[in-house]
Every structure is written in structure tokens, then in C-alpha cells.
């Protein structure tokens, strides 16, 4: 093409200059408007982002169960709605947990955060799940939104993990050496705190569940403050190999310490129920672990798991012989004393806390154990705890979401009523159990401890998902 001969219409010079001026003025106005919008728009300041891991944990003819793990990668949120689309028209949500689930008509599924998991700090996760039905095929959804923001993630639980929590700002680094103040557990700033965490199952049976990977998950993913080490004395426990069990407990204390978690050393007496049966063993064991761990800030001693079939006077007598052994080696550690009727404050024996209030253990810096199993122990136990909490320092060193057998179905309503009460009273707790035992109280599905994944939602039981969603919320420990 011959440009030289192309017909070009030229405006007079001043007209062109004015056009250019108008063009630049327009550009400037646009830039200003864009700038102002960015400055004044409320969205401009809030960072958003999310990750969703979707795992089909089991599938059978016409039905399936799915775990959904949400991680907030943006600024803290105080409420959330998760949405996704089920790809096949025959797929339906039947029943869900840890959120309010709905699928009105069509393929869009909505899950709205529940009271206990609607607040998610930056990096915090919560596990939900549902049982679904399907007719044709059962493809996995691939696109998720949280509060209308598109989430990254995977449908198999693999892929990129959220960044690990650094080793600073751990429960132990923030709170330091604990002590009892009034009826509370207090930190180094003399402020009441609540520790929330997990108990092992019997370490004689489930040692495969307590390793670097599972403890990492407990500290970083569950954000547990506490790791209770349940060392049975009978049932193939301590009495069969005192040196071996003592050293196993010490190494678990070290593993908790390395991750900034408190460790409760639980002398897990159960049968026989009179702790005096094990008095000599208790003295030997506690003399050894107290001397070895005296300089640590993360150790709490629990001297008798669940006295039963025995009077309060006998328990008190046991405590007043074991506590001085601990104090001689480790003067400043908190000690938890079991109570009558399987640590029910006597309620399971038809008594209550008044016998302790009238005749307390003659020692300082101690707390009294209260244990419950949500499906078995309900309102009358809660009433006792509410009343006793104003008179005695209480520590829920063991509880289950199921029946007192350790099995059966999760009683969600009772578990939530209990956890709300403990939160309100700032009573610390440890859940039975961080294990893959084949019973409803276990947090992990059977076989989990044969692998190395303790973090994805697919390995959790219903109890595990509920408890993890409660434990992994922010602690906000006071620091002055
Ligand atoms: C249960 C275990 C179960 C085991 C049984 C006997 O879950 O697998 O067979 O002990 O050792 C407690 C005890 C705790 C019990 C638990 C559930 O402290 O040892 O564990 N429970 O029965 N008190 C109330 C309930």
C-alpha cells in the first residue's frame, strides 16, 4: 500500500491540540476515579481467599460420604457460606454436619457456618461433611466459593497445603509456667486461661498413633494446646514394664514440648478403682518423671485417672502421699487429682462436690478432675459442674462425645452443650481419644495410624470432626 497517496484528513493544528488536551484530561479523570474507588471501596482493604479440600471418604450403592475442609486464606471472617455445584443431576445431599446444609432445587449446595465454626482466623480450618445419594455416576464437584470468593484446593485432599504455623507463639511460649489461681488455671501473667486438647488412647495399645507426623498435625492443624498422655497402669500397662513406660511417657512429653504444647502425664488407673492399690507404683513413677521434667514448663501431673468404688477419704489419702513426692522434685507444677465415681465429683456414686469442698486435699496448686461422656452424662452432671466451678478448680482431663463405654453414636447436642459450658467457665479439657481405635470416641477412622495423613478431613470420624472444629479456633491467651 502506498501510504504517501493515502487520503489523510488533517484537522487544523489548534483543533488537534484541544482534542489531545481533552483526551489527557479524560485520562486523568479516569485515573483519579479509579484511585478514589480503590481508596473508598470497603472491599479494597479486606484480603480474601480460601482453600477447599473435598474428599469422598466412602461410597456404597447409591450413597456416599464426603469430607469438606475449608481453610481461610484471607483476613479473619466471622461468618461464611460455602457453595458448590454437584456435577450430576442425580446427586443429593441427604444429611450434613458442622454446618447448616441445603440444596433447595437443582445442583447448587450451600453450607452455612455453625455457631462454633463460623469464625475463622487467617489460616484457620474447619471440617464439615455430608452423606449424599446419587443415581447415575458420582463425580466430585470441582469449583467452590466461600462468601462468593472462588477457592483454590483439590478434590482429593492432595496438592498444596496451607503454610505451617511457625514455632513461635505456641501455647507454652505464650503462657509459660501455669499455676492455679482461685478456681482457675492461670498463665505466667496471672490471667485465667482455658487449654483445649486431646488425650491419647492407652499408649500400650496405640503407640503407632503418636509420632512426629501425628504430633505435628495436633499442634499445627488441630491447634491443640494440650496433649494428655494416658499411661494405663494395669491392662498391659506400666506394671508390666515400669522403665519402658516411664521412658515412653518422657519422650511424648518432649514431643509435646518441641511443638509448644502442654503435656498431661496421666497415671491412668481404672481397674481396680482404688488408687491406693497402685500407691507404691505411683510414688516410684512420679518421683522419676517429676525429677526428669522439673525444669520444663509444659508438664501437668494427673495422679489418678478415675477412682471408682472407693471413698473420697481414700482418694484424698492417696493424693496427700503422692503430691509431696512430686513437689519434692518439681515444686511448681500443677497437679490434677481424680475424684470419686470415675472422676465425676462423686455424682456417679450418688454424691457431689460438697464432700470435697468440706474436706479438700491438703495441698496447693492442685485442680480436681471432672470427666464426662456426653451421651451418658447430661443435665444433672452439668448442673453439678456449674455449681462446683465456683468453689473448686476443675480440669476436664478426659471426656468423650459418645457413651461412657467409649463407643456408640456421637451425642452432638450434649457434646455441644458441654463444650459451651466449659468455654464459658474457662475449664480446660482433653478429648478421648486422639487415636484410630475402632470405637465412636476415636477422632480418626480405623487404619489412619498406619498412614501418615492426620490432617485431611477424610481421616476424621464424626467425633474427630466435631472436636477438631472446636479445638482449632483461636485461643486469644491474655499476655499482660
Ligand atoms: C476405654 C477405651 C476402650 C478400652 C477400655 C478399657 O476406650 O477401648 O477397652 O477403656 O481399657 C473412661 C476411662 C477410659 C475408657 C473410657 C471409655 O478413663 O480408659 O477407655 N472411659 O470407656 N472413663 C469413662 C469412659
TrEMBL record:
Keyword Hydrolase: yes
Root EC class: hydrolase
Keyword Signal among UniProt keywords: yes
Signal peptide: 1-46
Catalytic activity: Endohydrolysis of (1->4)-beta-D-glucosidic linkages in cellulose, lichenin and cereal beta-D-glucans
Ranges of residues in domain CBM2: 43-154
Pfam families found in the cross-reference section: CBM_2, Cellulase
EC number: 3.2.1.4
Record key words, sorted: Carbohydrate metabolism, Cellulose degradation, Glycosidase, Hydrolase, Polysaccharide degradation, Signal
InterPro entries (alphabetical): CBD2, CBM2/CBM3_carb-bd_dom_sf, CBM2_carb-bd_dom_sf, CBM2_CS, GH, Glyco_hydro_5, Glyco_hydro_5_CS
PANTHER family xref list: ENDO-BETA-1,4-GLUCANASE A, GLYCOSIDE HYDROLASE FAMILY 5 DOMAIN-CONTAINING PROTEIN
Family per similarity comment: Belongs to the glycosyl hydrolase 5 (cellulase A) family.
Name assigned to this protein: Endoglucanase
Organism of derivation: Streptomyces viridosporus T7A
